[in-house]
Amino acid sequence: MNRTLHPGHQATSELQGMNLKIWRSLQVAFWLIGFGIFTALIFFPNIGIQAFWNVLIPVAPALFVLSTGFWRNVCPLGTVSLLPRHLGISKSKRLSLKWQGRFHLIGVILLFVIVPVRHIVLDTNGLATALTLALVAVAAFTAGYFFEWKSGWCSGLCPVHPVEKMYGQKVLFTPPNSHCGRCQNCVIPCPDSIPDMNPAKANMRKSHRISSTLLVGGLPGFIWGWFHVPDCNANAHWTDCVLAFGLPYLTLGVSLSLFLSLRKYLHEKHEPLIVSAFAAAAVSFYYWYRIPALVGYGLFPGDGMLVDLRAAFPFWMVLVSQIVVAGFFVWWLVFRDAKAAVWAVRPPFAGRREG
Known about the structure:
The chain is mainly α and 355 residues long. It has one domain (17-335). The chain contains eleven helices and no strands. The protein is globular, with a radius of gyration of 20 Å. It starts with 16 loop residues before the first helix and ends in a 20-residue tail after the last helix.
């Protein structure tokens, strides 16, 4: 019998029948939404930019915190990457542990390269954003065509996956795994099926150690610095490009230095707490600056604004929302006493039948 398990409950469950049809319908619906945004970015750029950068992207971090597994089930790019496997045309090559670590490191590097480009062109140019998404979709499909299940993209090269591992440490609920019918053990350890997953829970290959340290230690500072850079206009000077990369990288370095110092001078048993604290700082910084920007109170007027509510809501109301949201994420990731949870219920292993 198929079922959705509560956090902390570990078992295997193969999704089939009506439950599988529901998830397939959700995947199609989210893919169509993604394709609609992609089309709008080309033909109606103002609408596309608003829908992608000011609606979808601001929702994503909170969704990663509450239910990483749900997003991994319905992510349009994840669906694209797994399409070759579902169609039976994937070459299904297995990645070695060494290359799993290298793919993860590449994903982290892509994250820290792509995000500053938003200020230079992506936040204000629908066609450029659409082209970037098209290139990413091709990369996702190619990874799924060559490599086994999620190892190539969803748990490998995807630049969003490192953030999922950063934020998805204490998920609220665990859905079934709607992509993996039978577990092929394609990634070690599997991020979907390891309780209380975080970037430190990885094999100790050098590339994994580098990427995990860079992500956990650097992300809070990187986010803080990114929000202190304005979007470039059509007449952007090369110095604007330097600032777009320079300030986030500088504050990334400060944050990373603090993380390395804490990890060096505190006992090893405190490392999970440090990781949780830096994750809470990262997501809190994001919403601390993103919420005001969405309603017209951003550091740079107009940048990242969804709707101007300055005439309707005084700033103190926005400030209260900032404090409440930041406090929630600190409580959720650092102080909340939660049982270890998995992102998604592991399906039965291939070649093994349950019960």
